[in-house]
Design goal:
Blueprint (H helix, E strand, L loop, with lengths): L1 E8 L7 H10 L7 E7 L2 E7 L12 E2 L4 E9 L2 H8 L10 H12 L9 E9 L4 E6 L8 E4 L3 E5 L2 H7 L8 H10 L13 E2 L4 E6 L2 E7 L13 H19 L6 E4 L4 H13 L7 E7 L8 H11 L2 E7 L1 H14 L9 H11 L5 E3 L4 H5 L3 H7 L16 H27 L4 E3 L5 H7 L15 H10 L16 H6 L2 H9 L2 H6 L2 H10 L3 H4 L3 H13 L8 H5 L2
Parallel strand pairs: 13-14, 13-16, 14-15, 16-17
Antiparallel strand pairs: 1-3, 1-9, 2-3, 4-5, 5-6, 6-7, 7-11, 8-9, 8-10, 11-12
Helix pairs in contact: 1-4, 2-3, 6-7, 6-14, 6-15, 7-8, 7-15, 9-21, 10-13, 17-19
């Protein structure tokens, strides 16, 4: 796992080394184990490295004998198979998964992207024909941001690298930020910065001699309608695809841990790990809990799963003091603001896990692929709605709803949150559900194997109930609710006062909404509605360089 960045000029200019060095420095937390820089004619590339596979031979930028150069953030899980397939066609010099991308390009040209199984943000430069290719994986697990001007296109793993280099400006789009107040995250390719966009999920762009010549998108899910399959065979095939995916996701030269919530998805990952690694006792699991009576607390289930699968169990508290002390720093670090309150425990879990781990497995994607969200069940029983432009003609209404989340909510909320929190602590996050083999199996399951009555993720729960009954997958789901409203209302007057007098908040909200803040802050339940406003205000303070030692109120009031 790494940080990448670069630039390509459209008018024959050469990259500025100082700008590239600033970009590289801004990405240092993503890659504390090494760094590199490359320039040729109108192209410059930078890289910071977190060593996971082939620590000695995987240095980047990596260059082959034909002057192809690559910087790469992610993991290619089928690199072993690629190496075996191409061993007689390409002169491999390392054991790195990065080199397999160069080998695929050498053999297949631009079609190399369709042979990759993994998570990635890639910049590959072919100096012999002055062609630069940038690409992002089909689920959007790894981020890549772009700044496009009449003179150049720059790109980086995080907006802060483009801003620090001076290639992008810091002007904010207030309308985009209002969408975070309404929906907690930003949809599509927009970012809060008017000069920066996201590279699309699964998108590949080709530049020839500085000019953009083609754009293509690699889909993450099948266009097929639900297939016919009975429950017994589906259970067998489910285990096969999960075993396959988790197995390749565990390819690593370093140890790994698991974020274990006690829910179905992470418990499934733990059980598959147990089946793959019988007798192994060095896998560590990490579970967050809160200091509020009545808050969701699934530690007992998580501990039971850890014990049953032979993993070590660590419960990590997140309390009021954490909220007031950590939130300003978390918000300030997030270039792409995601007001998902699960960002709080994710950040702390990452800080604890990073003391011993470099790789974390987690259960993101299980709800989207297997039909776990309550909104699917509510929508399912209502009169069918018109299909959106995202829907393929053969899809069921359930598939259309899943596709919406896979295209928007998953990459623009859950995966940004996971990637940023983990990479801030030098951790790589791996998501076995977000894999080609799993998605091809899960997305085209019969609807009845996803939803049965009021039960979502039916097939996954059925498998887990058989394999690991102590996980109690059919119990009523608590949901992972972070009690931000309790913590905010505990200092309601101070927070209300600083928010309503903050210039950024006054620009963000209309007068009627601004006047509601003191009333909403009065109780924990209603105070939760103010959470995105508080988060964004701290985010804005961080962008303005106003994060100092102190708690939430002191930072905003500074």
């Amino acid at each position: 796992m790494c940080g990448i960045g670069g630039i390509i000029y459209k008018n024959g200019l050469h990259p500025n080394l100082l700008e590239l060095e600033k970009m590289q420095k801004a990405l240092s937390t993503r890659g504390p184990d090494g760094h590199g820089l490359y320039t040729d004619k109108s192209v410059g590339l930078v890289h910071t490295r977190l060593s996971i596979i082939d620590s000695e031979g995987g240095h980047q930028p990596m260059q082959d004998d034909k002057k192809r150069v690559i910087v790469f953030n992610g993991e290619i899980y089928n690199y072993v198979e690629i190496r075996e397939q191409l061993k007689d066609k390409y002169p491999f010099k390392t054991q790195s998964d990065t080199e397999t991308i160069l080998a695929l390009y050498d053999v297949y040209g631009l079609d190399f992207i369709n042979h990759l199984r993994g998570m990635y943000a890639i910049a590959l430069y072919d100096a012999s024909i002055e062609t630069l290719i940038i690409a992002r994986d089909p689920f959007g697990i790894k981020p890549l941001y772009i700044c496009n001007t009449p003179h150049f296109t720059a790109f980086a793993s995080e907006p802060k690298a483009l801003l620090a280099s001076g290639l992008a400006h810091e002007y904010l789009d207030i309308d985009v930020l209002r969408s975070v107040v309404r929906g907690n995250y930003i949809k599509g390719s927009a970012t809060p910065y008017t000069s920066i966009d996201r590279l699309g999920v699964g998108e590949m762009i080709v530049f020839e001699r500085g000019q953009k010549t083609s754009i293509s998108t690699r889909p993450s899910i099948s266009k097929d309608a639900p297939r016919s399959e009975d429950e017994a065979s589906a259970l067998i095939n489910l285990e096969k695809c999960l075993m396959d995916s988790v197995n390749v996701h565990c390819r690593s030269d370093v140890g790994y841990g698991v974020f274990l919530s006690g829910g179905v998805d992470s418990s499934t990952v733990m059980q598959i790990l147990s089946k793959l690694n019988k007798g192994r006792t060095d896998i560590k699991s990490y579970t967050a809990y809160f200091d509020i009576d009545g808050a969701s607390d699934e530690r007992d289930y998580a501990r039971a799963v850890a014990n049953a699968t032979g993993a070590q169990f660590y419960d990590v508290p997140f309390g009021r003091d954490d909220f007031f002390k950590l939130l300003p720093h978390i918000a300030a670090y997030m270039d792409d603001p995601v007001a998902d309150y699960a960002i709080l425990p994710t950040w702390k879990l990452a800080s604890v896990a990073a003391q011993e781990q470099k790789v974390i497995l987690s259960g993101e994607g299980g709800d989207e692929l297997f039909g776990g969200y309550g909104r699917y069940r509510k929508r399912w029983w209502k009169k069918p709605k018109p299909k959106s432009s995202l829907c393929a003609p053969n899809w069921s209404e359930l598939q259309c709803a899943q596709a919406q989340d896979i295209a928007e909510y998953l990459p623009n909320d859950l995966l940004i949150k996971l990637d940023t929190c983990l990479m801030a602590h030098g951790l790589e996050g791996r998501t076995p559900f977000l894999d080609k083999v799993v998605s091809e199996f899960a997305f085209t399951l019969p609807d009845r194997l996803k939803l049965q009555g009021s039960t979502g993720k039916y097939l996954l729960k059925k498998w887990l109930d058989k394999e690991l009954p102590i996980a109690k997958p059919f119990r009523k789901k608590q949901g992972f609710t972070v009690p931000v409203g309790h913590w905010m209302s505990s200092d309601a007057k101070n927070i209300s006062d600083v928010l309503i007098h903050n210039q950024f908040v006054q620009d963000l909200l209309n007068k009627d909404d601004l006047s509601l803040i003191p009333k909403l802050m009065a109780t924990p339940k209603s105070a939760t509605q103010c959470w995105p406003i508080l988060y964004l205000t701290l985010w804005h303070a961080g962008k303005a360089g106003e994060i100092h030692h102190g708690n939430v109120v002191e930072v905003i009031d500074n």
